[in-house]
Amino acid sequence: MARDLAPDWILQGALAEQDKSAQWFKQKLANMTTENSADRAKGLALTVIGCGTLGTAILGGIFEFLDAGKTVDKTDDDTPARLPTIFNACVRSDSSAARIRKELGNYKTPINVRQNDNVAATKEADVIILGCKPYATASILGNDDMRNALQGKLLISILAGVPETQISLILYPSGIPKEGACTIIRAMPNTAASIRESMTVLSTPTPAPPADQLTLTTWIFSRIGRVSTLAPNLMDAATALCGSGPAFTAVFIESLALGAIAMGIPKESAYEMAAQTVRGMSGLVLGGEHPALARDRVSSPGGCTVGGLVVLEEGGLRGTVSRAVREATVVASQLGEGGKNVNGTRR
């Protein structure tokens, strides 16, 4: 028996209810998006004290993210619930202020450049990045005004050779208070931050900082490259490897190019070829290939590569480079202690 069709008025009613449900869902989704945007719009205030080359690079990396509109359009588990949206860059000289305005002025995100105004800029901030010269740490942090301004906030230090314990002693010479102390996280980025290829190492205090603060710190430095975490006692070695390592690598690139130039390759071509060769091998290693296996794959018996490797071994390249990292580690530890002419102590 053929089924009777439903009357038109029933179909129209059903369609109307479906339309109401669809409209409700769209409005709910729009409200959720608006609420998320409003939460992010509140944002955090970030102040960089001693905003030099690294500080400017860090701000530039954040600005690129914000200018792309990703705070609303795309979020993931690694994106903090609240992001920095207000920025202060603290410097002393007119030339430094002009440099920051020039380098960061092309971004849509505004930057407030403050001269000799560290305490007020810290009071206004939720997060502070300390990027001054290591010897200036005590003069900047060692007063009641700064101590009060930092109360309950996140202080991220990018100072070479200055451990969290030393900063804590400057801030709290009588001991860390039970309430109101700032959280100190040490970070060691490197010069490649300017092209968003930094290797930043984080050292977190004990006890561990709140999860949201560690997530925010990781996010900040992920804007300028890769981030890894090490124990505090390994930070001087990380400073030598990641902070001084770019200079050591530059010497190796220069040496590769010099040999090619001696054999007739034009200078510009030689430097480009040497740099790309190092970059390519870096990509293989970062992709999971062990350096020794990568080396072995291109070392045919009796070939030119083996001949060159023998020369490097005769010159003690690996031992010399390793010793450079060890020496830089020792110097980094002494810099944090306020030592002078520390490189003159090497025998």
TrEMBL record:
Where does the Pyrroline-5-carboxylate reductase catalytic N-terminal domain start and stop, copy by copy?
A: 47-161
Give the highest taxon in the source lineage: Eukaryota
Keyword NADP: yes or no? yes
Task: Name the GO terms of the biological process aspect.
Answer: L-proline biosynthetic process
Instruction: List membrane-spanning regions.
Output: none
**Keywords carried by this UniProt record:** NADP, Oxidoreductase
Name one matching Pfam family. Answer: P5CR_dimer
Looking at the record, the residues that make up the Pyrroline-5-carboxylate reductase dimerisation domain are 233-334
Any single GO molecular-function term of the entry would be: pyrroline-5-carboxylate reductase activity
Under the heading SUPFAM superfamilies, the entry gives: 6-phosphogluconate dehydrogenase C-terminal domain-like, NAD(P)-binding Rossmann-fold domains
Which NCBIfam families does the UniProt entry name for this protein? proC
Family classification: Belongs to the pyrroline-5-carboxylate reductase family.
Q: What is the protein named?
A: Pyrroline-5-carboxylate reductase
**What organism does the UniProt record list as the source?**
Cryoendolithus antarcticus
For this protein's source organism, the top of the classification is: Eukaryota, Fungi, Dikarya, Ascomycota, Pezizomycotina
